[in-house]
Amino acid sequence: MSPTPAGTVVRGLALVLLAAVGLLLVGSPTAHGHAVLVSTTPEDGATVATMPNEIVLTFNERVTTPAYVVAEAPDGTKVASGEARTDGTSVRATTEPAGIAGKYRISYRVVSADGHPISGSVYVTVTEGRTVETTREDDGDTDAGFVHEHRAHFLWGAAGVVAAAALLLWPRRREDKEDA
Fold first, then answer.
1. Domain 37-139 has CATH 2.60.40.1220
2. pTM of the full predicted structure?
3. Residue ranges of E strands in the chain
4. Would you say the C-alpha torsion 73, 57, 88, 32 has a positive or negative sign?
5. Residue-level pLDDT, tens digit, the chain, 180 residues
């Protein structure tokens, strides 16, 4: 049996819809509408004699609470941790002196104005103090959390495409049963 003209149109529309949604999902760039870290005090990659008493992270847009900052010495000793203070586009955390020379990791997790969590790490080298063996592991991939958080959005979108295709093709299946 040959398909009816209405069935052919529905099938064609379903295929066009699937192709369009597929192109949008595959070809769309990552959204960058969230807050972005624009500067730090001390600066990312800087070499300083001692760790300052306060760490300041500045973003391109307002950030809200909860905001967390954890600064770790090379041996994993935390010199700043817990909830930080937010002030518009800035986040501030107080540090405790560790007296250890080496590469410090300053990690942060804040909530941007649109409600999305933003996280990352910056590094500062301290020259004064005793040297210790580095026991802290540097993960190097600070965007992994961001990618993971948006994986669910992609999966829900894909499920919506499958559901839309099923709904569009459902009338065609019923027509085939009635013709048989």
1. yes
2. 0.59
3. 37-41, 47-48, 54-59, 63-72, 78-80, 85-87, 90-94, 100-112, 117-126, 130-131
4. negative
5. 455 665 666 676 666 666 666 655 555 444 456 789 999 999 999 999 999 999 999 999 999 888 999 999 998 889 987 778 999 999 999 999 889 999 999 999 999 888 888 899 999 999 998 888 776 666 554 443 334 445 556 667 777 787 777 777 777 666 666 665
